[in-house]
Write a sequence for this structure.
C-alpha cells in the first residue's frame, strides 16, 4: 500500500509539472521550478482520509468567456424574450377552451347498428340497405347508421336475445321476441297486404292441390320465418296436412336457397315471400320462368322497424320520420324499390298484437316456434 501511494504521488507530481507549465509557461530557472513542483504536489495529491476526491490533477486554470460567447449568450436571451412576448400577444395562441358543443374538428362518429333479418345473403343485404340508411338525416352530424347482416335466422335471433343491435328490422315473430329484450316498434316496413307466404313449385310438376305435398320435401329458410314458414304451414294444417309427419320439412338457411331447392328439384316446393321472389325473378329470369307460385297465404302484418331502449328518443323518432319520408322523393322511391318495399308506415308495439294471437294459435295446434321443432 505504501509503495502504491508513493507511485500516485510521483505521477501526480509529474502531471502537476506539465499542467503548471502549460498554464503559466516557463517562469524561470530551478528555483521557480521547485516552487511550482511543491505547489502542484500539494494541490493534486489526494488525502487518504478523503477517498471521494478525484485522484487526477486539478489546476486553477478557469477559461473565461470570450467575446464570441458573450455575444451568442446575449443573442439567445434576446430570442427567448421575443418569443415569450409574441406568445402572450398572439391572438392565434390559445390554451384549453371549454364549450357547450362537441369539437367537430375531432371528426368523431357514433355508429348505430341497424340489423336486418336475413332477406338476402349478407353481402347483398348490406349492399342494398346501406345506401338507404346513408340518406337518412340524423339529429347529430356525428351519428351514422350501419347495416348489419346475419348469416342466417338463428344468428340474427341470437343477436336480438343478446340485445346487440341498436335498431332492428325483424319479421313479426322476431319483433314479438325483441319486445321482451327492450326493443320497441317505431315503424312498419311495407304494406300489410304484402306480408304473405308463397309456395313455389316447378311448372312441370303440375301441383294443384296441397295434399299432393304429402310425403314430399318442402324447403323453408327457417322454422321461425313467419311469412316463409309459419303462415304456409298453418295453411297446410288447415287443408288437413299433419305438418310434422306428412311433410319432409327441410330448413335451408335463406330465402334464395329455398327457391333454388324448388328449381333444382331437390324439393317439391320452396317457401318464401314476395320481396325475395321478386328479387329472384329480376336476377334470374330464365330460372324463374320455370317456376310458379302454386299457393299463397292470406296476409298478416309486415316487418317491424325497432329501436332498443338505449337509443335516445329523438334519434329513434328521427329515423322513423326519415324512413317514412323516402317515398316523397324520386331518389327515395328508387331506394325503396331496391329493397322491394313500397314505403315505411308509423307503427307501435300494439300493431303487432294480431301476430301474437296468430302465433299463439299456431303453437297450440301445429308446433312450437321458439325451439324450432319444425321437422320430424
Amino acid at each position: 500500500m505504501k509503495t502504491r501511494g508513493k507511485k500516485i504521488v510521483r505521477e501526480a507530481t509529474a502531471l502537476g509539472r506539465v499542467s503548471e507549465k502549460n498554464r503559466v509557461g516557463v517562469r524561470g530557472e530551478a528555483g521557480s521550478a521547485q516552487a511550482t513542483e511543491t505547489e502542484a504536489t500539494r494541490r493534486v495529491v489526494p488525502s487518504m482520509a478523503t477517498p471521494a476526491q478525484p485522484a487526477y490533477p486539478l489546476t486553477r486554470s478557469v477559461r473565461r468567456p470570450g467575446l464570441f460567447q458573450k455575444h451568442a449568450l446575449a443573442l439567445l436571451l434576446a430570442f427567448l424574450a421575443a418569443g415569450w412576448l409574441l406568445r402572450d400577444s398572439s391572438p392565434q395562441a390559445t390554451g384549453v377552451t371549454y364549450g357547450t358543443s362537441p369539437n367537430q374538428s375531432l371528426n368523431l362518429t357514433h355508429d348505430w347498428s341497424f340489423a336486418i333479418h336475413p332477406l338476402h345473403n349478407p353481402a347483398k343485404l348490406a349492399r342494398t340497405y346501406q345506401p338507404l340508411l346513408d340518406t337518412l338525416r340524423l339529429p347529430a352530424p356525428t351519428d351514422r347508421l350501419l347495416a348489419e347482416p346475419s348469416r342466417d335466422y338463428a344468428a340474427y335471433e341470437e343477436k336480438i336475445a343478446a340485445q346487440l343491435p341498436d335498431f332492428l328490422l325483424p319479421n313479426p315473430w322476431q319483433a314479438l321476441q325483441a319486445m321482451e329484450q327492450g326493443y320497441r316498434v317505431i315503424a312498419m316496413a311495407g304494406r300489410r297486404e304484402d306480408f304473405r307466404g308463397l309456395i313455389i313449385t316447378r311448372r312441370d310438376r303440375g301441383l294443384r292441390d296441397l295434399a299432393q305435398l304429402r310425403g314430399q320435401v318442402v324447403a323453408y329458410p327457417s322454422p321461425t320465418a313467419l311469412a316463409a314458414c309459419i303462415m304456409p304451414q298453418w295453411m297446410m294444417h288447415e287443408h288437413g296436412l299433419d305438418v310434422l309427419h306428412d311433410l319432409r320439412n327441410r330448413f335451408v338457411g335463406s330465402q334464395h336457397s329455398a327457391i333454388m331447392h324448388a328449381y333444382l328439384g331437390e324439393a317439391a316446393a320452396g317457401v318464401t315471400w314476395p320481396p325475395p321472389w321478386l328479387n329472384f325473378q329480376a336476377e334470374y329470369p330464365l330460372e324463374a320462368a320455370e317456376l310458379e307460385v302454386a299457393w299463397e297465404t292470406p296476409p298478416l302484418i309486415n316487418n317491424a322497424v325497432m329501436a332498443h331502449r338505449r337509443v335516445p328518443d329523438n334519434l329513434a323518432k328521427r329515423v322513423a320520420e326519415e324512413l317514412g319520408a323516402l317515398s316523397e322523393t324520386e331518389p327515395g322511391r328508387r331506394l325503396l324499390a331496391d329493397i322491394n318495399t313500397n314505403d315505411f308506415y308509423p307503427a307501435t308495439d300494439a300493431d303487432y298484437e294480431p301476430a301474437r294471437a296468430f302465433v299463439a294459435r299456431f303453437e297450440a295446434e301445429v308446433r312450437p316456434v321458439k325451439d324450432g321443432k319444425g321437422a320430424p
Q: What stands out?
A: The chain has three domains: 2-44, 110-194+302-365, 198-296. The mean pLDDT is 81.
